[in-house]
């Protein structure tokens, strides 16, 4: 198996606010802790990818991933998500932070959107705001 890095570039955008609610649910939190090794900050960082990176994003399915399983609380079933280890970099600072890209099976985001998980508040840690450009390196092994 070949290790590879998928380089993506995009700008920060404000999301819909749904992730905060979902990331606080025990059925997801327990899995993030055991599968990713941390409790994520309650919310994702949303990235709008440039055209080239949007095309490259389709190659994620060629990489090994971490699966967050579907679960139910008795009243509702919550869908699965696929996570990929990654690193985020703010070009002007050169600071790298390990993160995970998360692709929920159920989403209202378009193909040019990418959601990022981290144990820290990425906006504060990197001093970033909407429209700032970020580089995301997805790390994986080709299947």
Summarize the topology.
Elements: E1 3-13, H1 18-23, H2 26-36, E2 45-49, H3 51-57, E3 66-68, E4 71-72, E5 77-78, E6 81-90, E7 95-104, E8 113-117, H4 122-125, E9 133-141
**Structural class by helix and strand composition:** alpha+beta
Q: Mean of residue pLDDT?
A: 91
Main sheet properties: 6 strands, antiparallel, barrel
Enumerate the spans where pLDDT stays under 50 for 5 or more consecutive residues: none
Query: Secondary-structure element order, as H and E?
Result: EHHEHEEEEEEHE
Strand order, sheet with most strands: 1-2-8-7-6-9
Q: Tell me roughly what share of residues is in helical segments.
A: 10-25%
How would you sum up the global shape?
Answer: globular
Please report the total strand number as a whole number. Answer: 9
Query: What is the helix tally?
Result: 4
The proportion of strand residues reads: 35-45%
């Amino acid at each position: 198996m070949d290790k590879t890095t998928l380089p993506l570039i995009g700008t920060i955008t404000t999301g819909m606010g749904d992730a905060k609610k979902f990331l606080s649910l025990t059925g997801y939190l327990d899995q993030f802790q055991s599968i990713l090794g941390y409790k994520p900050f309650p919310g994702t960082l949303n990235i709008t990818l440039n055209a080239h990176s949007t095309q490259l994003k389709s190659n994620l399915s060629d990489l090994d991933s971490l699966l967050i399983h579907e679960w139910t609380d008795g009243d509702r079933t919550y869908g699965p998500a696929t996570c990929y280890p990654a690193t985020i970099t703010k070009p002007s600072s050169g600071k790298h932070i390990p993160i995970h890209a998360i692709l929920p099976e159920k989403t209202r985001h378009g193909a040019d959107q990418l959601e990022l998980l981290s144990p820290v508040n990425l906006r504060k840690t990197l001093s970033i705001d909407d429209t700032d450009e970020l580089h995301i390196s997805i790390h994986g092994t080709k299947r």
